[in-house]
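Data deposition worksheet. Section B asks for the primary sequence of the deposited chain exactly as it was used as input, without tags or linkers unless they were present during the calculation. Section C holds the resulting structure in token form. Section D is free text for depositor observations; keep each observation to a single sentence. Incomplete worksheets are returned to the depositor.
Section A, Depositor: J.P.
Section B:
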Amino acid sequence: DKHAELVVKEGTVTAGDTAIIDFKGFKDGVAFEGGEAENFALEIGSGQFIPGFEEQLIGLNTGDVKDVELAFPEDYHVEDLKGQDVVFNVTVHEVKERIVPELNDDFALDVDLEDVKNVDDLKAHVRKQLEFTKDAEAARDHENELLSTIVDNAEIEIPAVMVEQETDRLYEDMKMRIEQQGIPFDQFIAMTGQNVEELRANLTTDAERQVKLRLVLDEVAIVENVEVTEEELVAEYAHLAEHYNMELDAIKNAISEENLKYDLKIRKAYDLVKELN
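Section C:
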């Protein structure tokens, strides 16, 4: 599916298409915060918006303007909008459809994978990748269960400043990942119907769990006398430089030796916990 191409289409919006739209939401005739965006790429059927929104765009043409009337869910995370009737004024600028290339030997060669020379080789490669993904998901499920057990059973006091710092880190990480997908962060905020404060509040729960886990693993590292060698530190800097396609000196300037050594120590402590479980 990643090899599919979005192309401008003639005709109306259908399920699976991507509509480039402007929208602005109103409650009782007044625009509400976080309910507006321009040139937003919305895949119809993706469930990005509240129920009923995407379905009402089906059948529209480029240039059409429509008032989409619907109600927010009763369990919506913004208190003032829970169960409320609203109207979104929507303008369709462009309609695109996803074109999937034909599965043949030419496509297999275009994929440019080592040892893939024809469509049969490609199918074998995909089967192998699916098996690998299934095994990786099972391993992640086990790790998540282990992490939950560690956090839920730990009785430890969490400094508020650490939670605040972790919330900042999660927020900036989310912002970076969203923008790397080509989505302006303010449009993402508008799409979720939240403001920045509400988004940060939702991240705080995850931040508390991350801090609690780190404090527990920090204690494990102390008890088990976990150490990070100079060789491990050098190898990790080299790995990060390669992963982010950055010069080694740039990575060292971005991540202090103290912080990287601490991260490696926590990682080794977690690996030790996994071995014991």
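Section D:
The beta strands are 5-8, 18-27, 30-43, 65-71, 85-99.
The chain is about 50% helix and 20% strand.
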